[in-house]
Amino acid sequence: VIRHARVVTPAPGTAGARRGREIGRLQVLDNATVLCAGGRIDRVEPGGAVPAAAVEIDARGRVLLPAFVDCHTHACWAGDRLDEWEMKRKGASYLDILRAGGGIMSTVRAVRAASREALAHDLRSRLDVMLNEGTTTVEVKSGYGLTTDDELKMVRAIRDAAATWPGTVVPTALLGHAIDPAAGSAAAFVDRVIEETLPAVSAEFPGIAVDAFCENGAWSLADCARLFERARAAGHPIRVHADQFTALGMLEEAVRLGAVSVDHLEASTPQGLVTLAASAAVGVLLPCCGFHLDGRYAGARPLVDGGGAVALATNLNPGSAPCSSIPMAVALAVRHCGLSASEAITAATANAAAVLGMPDRGIIAPGARADLVLLRHRDERLLAYEFGGDPVDAVVCGGRVTRPDRAG
Ligand code: NIG
């Protein structure tokens, strides 16, 4: 039971992602009680009686939000990219380093050299950090294996790490992340992914989302389209990294293919964002990238004002976004992507849950999973206003207190 809380939640009752103006409309209930039972929220009511045997947190007016949903991460990796980061500080660009065989490929080499157990162990440590930061549902992509065996090793490691974590992990098969030079040619590699890796992943992980990075030096528009047509025919939801550095037409193609989400959007054209706004796909903002790499951010206003759906994620990875904090992503999205604090809260909760096809979270309502985060603040706008600190006082995950009230 959480008593005397300022309960702040995206309004329940919407099927799928909140769109347009609805994104900024939060439901607020002051001095409320939230009762959880069996891992779910049982009741949300003003005042409210407390069952005698309840574990109780007294919020004393602090803000209670649905726990954060991080719908885009590459949290499973090995090695580090610190030397490359120093090169970037001296002026090398992300794509220069990728073209020279570093970047994603240097993490590919480290992941191939790592055991499934080591990958799962390191991922599990990162998940624990995220849980403490208020994130209870995390999408984790493969994409640093590139061979069939190494991609399968990654997805298995993600599943292994998830098995003992109190929160929820959603794996994604990022089959089109880079081009493996060892395959001989880009065409040979793409053929292998489509003819061998995709069927192997389909057989072991039916229905897993399939993702690709459409960019110069990574996967071309035509190759992404081929992969996605085959993935869609095999029953996989499609997600895509589009317009991160270059608008290659992938956003429009993703809309045509019925992608669940189009992620990044830093280089999208205004017309592209209008097209996305009119589609069923969710635009996923990843502002930690701009903060870490080059100061470029997606502009979310055309998307939201055009009636579209927007979600927000950390993009945690060793290359473009070494950050697991949704509060930091919120602070950046409000400063640089044009979201209001209310919109950013919906984007990192209910709308991120919609990207993952999980309508039972990202809201505070009877029947929803009891995943909750108690902030230090009494005004939710402070989540966006402050940055770089730790605004989380307590975390409840599946009805259990995983981070006891710091001020309790
Ligand atoms: O979303 N751009 C492609 N993928 C990641 C970066 C992965 C990496 O650099 O290791 C991203 O930014």
Question: Would you give an account of this structure?
Answer:
The chain has 408 residues and is of the alpha/beta class. Helices cover 36% and strands 22% of the residues. The chain has 15 helices and 16 strands. Strands 1, 2, 3, 4, 5, 14, 15 and 16 form an eight-stranded mixed β-sheet that branches. An eight-stranded parallel β-sheet has the order 6-7-8-9-10-11-12-13. A hairpin with a 2-residue loop joins β2 (26-37) and β3. The longest helix is centred in the middle third of the chain and has 19 residues, at 186-204. The model has no long low-confidence stretch (mean pLDDT 97). The structure holds N-(iminomethyl)-L-glutamic acid. N-(iminomethyl)-L-glutamic acid is lined by residues 74, 103-104, 107, 213, 241, 244, 289, 315, 317-320.
Provide key terms for this protein.
single chain; 408 residues; alpha/beta; 8-stranded mixed β-sheet; 8-stranded parallel β-sheet; 15 helices; 16 strands; binds N-(iminomethyl)-L-glutamic acid
